[in-house]
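thought: user wants a sequence for this fold. calling inverse folding tool.
action: design(structure=
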């Protein structure tokens, strides 16, 4: 049986303590440094969302999540305040707010699930058709 200290991968090299000490201290940021933008796009803009919904007769929520790579948890739910009352949409809070704004402006409508007693959005659709040239 080999001892854990005899394994080559776990043995420390003489340079390891110096490297660990130097990597533990973050480099000082210069005052002129500009913060880097997050390379991974997060969500979508209201214009992108509106354009995508208006380009189709109906968009199920799972397609919105897939198209805009909306992360978050699978049980993310946002509250919408619609003229017909409180409604819930299975989107992260930011995108839920965008949907609420589009509903408020009369740009899109929401299809509700009629199975449970709670008003739950299962899809969206455009209200004003896109003018075609």
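)
observation: tool returned 133 residues.
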């Amino acid at each position: 049986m080999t001892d854990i200290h005899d394994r080559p991968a776990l043995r420390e090299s003489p340079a390891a303590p110096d490297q660990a000490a130097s990597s533990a201290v973050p480099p000082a940021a210069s005052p002129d440094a500009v913060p880097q933008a997050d390379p991974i796009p997060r969500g979508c803009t209201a214009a992108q969302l509106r354009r995508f919904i208006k380009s189709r007769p109906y968009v199920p929520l799972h397609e919105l999540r897939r198209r805009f790579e909306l992360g978050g948890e699978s049980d993310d739910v946002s509250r919408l305040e619609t003229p017909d009352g409180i409604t819930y949409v299975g989107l992260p809070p930011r995108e839920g707010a965008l949907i609420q704004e589009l509903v408020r402006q009369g740009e899109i409508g929401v299809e509700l699930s009629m199975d449970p007693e709670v008003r739950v959005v299962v899809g969206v659709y455009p209200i004003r058709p896109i003018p075609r040239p």
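thought: summarizing for user.
answer: Here is the designed sequence. The chain is about 30% helix and 20% strand.
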